[in-house]
Amino acid sequence: MSYNRRSKLITAGVARSPNRAMLRAVGFGDGDFEKPIVGVANGHSTLNPCNAGIQPLADRAVEAIKAAGGMPQMYGVITVTDGISMGTEGMKYSLVSREVIADAIETATQSQMMDGVLVIGACDKNMPGGMIAMCRMNIPAIYCYGGTIKPGHWKGQPLTIVSPFEAVGKMAAGTISQEDFDGIEKHACPTNGACGGMYTANTMSSSFEALGMSLLGSSSMANPDPEKADSVAESSRVLVEAIKKDLKPLDIINKKSIENAVALIMATGGSTNAVLHYLAITHAAGIDWTIDDFERMRKKVPVLCDLKPSGQYVMTDLHAVGGVPQVLKLLLNKGLLHGDCMTITGRTMAEELANVPDLPRKDQDVIRQPDNPLYAQGHLAILKGNLAPEGCVAKITGLKNPVLTGPARVFNSEPECMDAIMANRINHGDVLVLRYEGPKGGPGMREMLAPTSAIIGKGMGETVALITDGRFSGGTWGMVVGHIAPEAQVGGLLALVEEGDSITVDAHQLLIQLNVDEATIAARRAKWTAPPPRYTRGVMSKFALLASSASKGAVTDL
Hints:
The chain has helices at about 5-10, 15-25, 50, 55-65, 80-85, 95-110, 125-135, 160-175, 180-185, 200-210, 225-245, 250, 255-270, 275-285, 290-300, 315-320, 325-335, 350, 415-420, 450-455, 520-525, 540-545; strands spanning about 35-40, 70-75, 115-120, 140-145, 150-155, 155-160, 380-385, 390-395, 405-410, 430-435, 465-470, 480-485, 500-505, 510-515. The protein is an alpha/beta fold. The chain folds into 4 domains: about 1-30, no CATH class; about 35-150 and about 190-350, no CATH class; about 160-190, no CATH class; about 380-550, 3-Layer(bba) Sandwich (Glucose Oxidase, domain 1), CATH 3.50.30. Strands 7-8-12-11-10-9-13-14 form an 8-stranded mixed beta sheet. A hairpin with a 7-residue loop joins strand 7 (about 380-385) and strand 8. The longest helix has 20 residues, at about 225-245. The protein is globular and about 75 Å long.
C-alpha cells in the first residue's frame, strides 16, 4: 500500500521520469518511491546552545525513519537567539521568527507534498512556529524537543541563563564582587540545550506533551544525554505509524487538548509567552479560544511545581522526579485533565499515563503533593482595565503582594528604561511604563529580561512594577505585566500616559488602571499622533503591517 502523497506526481505520465530522476539523485532507489516521504525540519544552528546540539538528533531521526519504512528528507529551519540578542534591536526579530519558522516549514513540506513531518527545535520560537505549521498543514506530524541545558554552578549555587542578567543589577547595586560576576558569566551555560528553568522553551515543549503532540517524558531530557537521541528515534517510529494510520494534528488538537496543555502550563509555573503562542496555535488550528480562557483555567489549576524563575529548581530536577508525566497524572487524578484526548501514539492520554504513579515521591519537593500545592491557583493572570481593555498578562508567582499603586515612569523604548534603572533613577513604588514595544510598534514585541532582571538584581522586585505592550522572557519574574492591548502604536491608552500619572496594578482584582479622569484622557488623545513606523522595508515592515493584536496572538495570517 502506498502512503505517498507525491506518488500521484511521481507516477503521473510525463512527470514520472523527471520526478524520479531528481529523487534518485538524493538517495531514492527502485523500492523507495512508494514509501511515505517524511520531512525532518531541522532547527540545528550554532547561533546558540539551545540548537547547537540538534544535528545529532536530526541524524538519528533520519536513521530511525528509514528503519521504520519511511523515506526521510531533511531541510533546515532558522532560529533566533533570544538570550544573545536580549536588550538589543535584534531582539525584535524573535517573535517575527515564529512566523518565519511556521511559513518555512509549511512551504518546504507542502511544496514537496511530504506525507508527514518531524520537527526538531529547541529555542523559544522553534516550538510554537513548528506547531503553527503542523496545524496549518494537518498532515501527520510530531514535535521533538532538542532538550534542556544542564544547570551551571558557581560556589555551590546553581545557575541558569537568568543568573548573568540578574548579576548585572547586583553589580550596579554594589552587592556582588567582580570575581562572582565573572564566575557567574563563565559557568551559567555549561552544555548544549535550551535555557534550564521553566522558561519559554521548556514551557512550550512541556505543554506539547500535554497537547499529545510529543512523546511523554521527552521535554525534560537534557540535550547531551543519550536518552534524548533515543527519544527522537522512538518519535520517528511513532510518526511513521501515524502516517500509516493517517493520524493528523487536528485529530489530536482540539479545545480539550488545548485545555490539557494550558493546565500543564499553570501547574508548572510556565512562561507568559505561552499565552501569546497558544492564541496563535489555536488560531492556526481553527479552535475557539480567547485570552479569557487562560483566566478560566488559572482559577481552577494549582501551581504544583517549584521551578525557576520564581522557584528553586530546574528542568533536569523535574525530570529526575518523574517529569511532565508525573504532573499530568496528578492533574488527571484531580479531574483537571481530559484523559480521553488522543495522542500522537494512537493511545489516549489516560492510557499513556496508566503506569505513572498516582503520587510523586515523598523524598522530593520539586513536584508538590496534591494536597500541598505551591499556590492554590495558577500564576498567569489576565488583567483588564482602561489601560488594557483587550487584556494583558501578569505573572504573579513569587510575589508576597502583587498589588501596587504608584507614579508612572514613562519610557518609549526598552533602552531608555534600562538606562534609567542602571543610573539609579528608579524609586521604590514606581510603575515603569515601557511602551511602543508591541507587535506593530516595536515592531516584534521585544522581551524585557534585561530591565526586569536588573530590577530584581537591585532588590526592587517586590516594590517596582513594570508594565509594557512588549513581552517578557520566560526567565522574568517580579511585578511585571506584558502584552498590554491595544498597544501604544495603534492608540491604546498606554500611549497617553504621562510621567507621574497614578497607575494601579492589582492582580487580586485582575485590574490595570490609569487613575486619570476621562476629560484629561480625551484632551491628550486629541493631541496624540502615532509615531512613524520604525521599519519600512523587509521582514520587520511586513510583520508590523500584518501582525494582529497581542490579545489575538500577534499572528500574521488573519
